[in-house]
Amino acid sequence: MTPTYDFHGQVALITGAASGMGLATARAFAEAGAAVVLADLDERAVQHAAEGLAAAGHRAVGVVCDVTDEEQAAAMVDRAVATYGRLDMAFNNAGVQAPPSDAADETAADFDRVNAVNLRGVWAAQKHELRRMRQQDGGGAIVNCSSLGGLVGLPERAAYHASKHGVIGLTRSAAVEYAPRGIRINAVCPGVIDTPMVAGMLEGQAEAMAEIMKQQPIGRLGRPDEIAAAVLWLCSPAASFVVGVALPVDGGYTTH
Questions:
Q1: Helical axes 158-178 vs 121-133, angle rounded to 10°
Q2: What is the C-alpha separation between 227 and 250, in angstroms, rounded?
Q3: Nearest Cα to 250, choosing from 118, 152, 154, 175?
Q4: What is the per-residue pLDDT for 235?
Q5: Under 8 Å CB-to-CB from 64, ≥6 apart: which residues?
Q6: What number of other Cβ atoms are within 10 A of residue 208's Cβ?
Q7: What is the predicted pLDDT for the residue at 163?
């Protein structure tokens, strides 16, 4: 049975929403009745995604945002509130990969870039989402996107995994701080999901990806809608007692 949720009267913000897990989650929120704000660095893609949801009868708006720029993250939240009057839920999903590298050879530029998006970007988005949520009745729910890379270590992935481990620390500390104020914060840790980012990795790093797939007991790639389902559950009343978790959605990868 597929669970259903009623998010009518609520507003959800999703970063990295132009494709992949972000778009699947925006669509799922919209189909559950929420007004959705889709944010992404790719202006054409995010506007196309928002227009597609609006054409299907949903309330949706696209916002261009570079989450590495705190002012843009603040403006993104302001736009959500200006458009729909409040902010109830957020999925901080925007992220990038770092090229595989021996830990002794990783460049500072690669380290800074992946952490700017994956960790600082989540920090900036969460910061300004919390500033809004703490002012309004009803609290809120935030889900930050970590990764199986936030739970394990793998060769040639040090910078990327550092960023994703950092998301879990950020999530847990903020969750403890804001749970008494009625705002629940959790993280989701996707495994290898069939997204444009993973498609590029499968093509460019076929040997490494084949090894990773051997460790995924379910024997297939995950689907973006499977991550969306986890995010909606974490934001729903069904997860009302769930605070500060890093939820693996990884086909069993991290059970090893």
A1: 10
A2: 9
A3: 152
A4: 98
A5: 39, 40, 41, 43, 46
A6: 16
A7: 98
Q: For the chain, which ranges sit under pLDDT 50?
A: none
List, in order, residues 6 or more apart from 199 with CB less than 8 Å away.
none
The β-bridge relationship of strands 89-92 and 60-64 is unpaired
pLDDT at residue 210, as a whole number: 72
Host H or E run for residue 140:
strand 140-145
* pLDDT for 220: 86
List the domains of the chain with CATH numbers.
11-248 (3.40.50.720)
Answer yes or no: are the C-beta atoms of 92 and 170 closer than 8 Å. Answer: no
The active-site residue, picked from 5, 84, 160, 178, is 160
Q: How many contiguous H segments (helices) and E segments (strands) does the chain have? A: 9, 7
Question: 0.90 cut: is pTM over it?
Answer: yes
Task: Pull the structure tokens for residue 208.
Answer: 């490494």
Per the annotation, the verdict on 5 as an active-site residue is no
What per-residue confidence (pLDDT) applies to 239? 98
Distance of CA 175 to the CA centre of its chain: 16
Radius of gyration of the chain (CA): 17
Cβ proximity of 91 and 28 under 8 Å: no
- Alpha-helix runs per DSSP H in 56-157: 70-84, 108-115, 121-133
Are 186 and 91 spatial neighbours (Cβ–Cβ below 8 Å)?
no
Q: What is the pLDDT of residues 55-83, one digit of tens each?
A: 999 999 999 999 999 999 999 999 999 99
- Other CB atoms closer than 10 Å to residue 91's CB: what's the count? 31
Q: What element of type H or E holds 248?
A: strand 246-249
Closest by alpha carbon to 30, among 50, 2, 3? 50
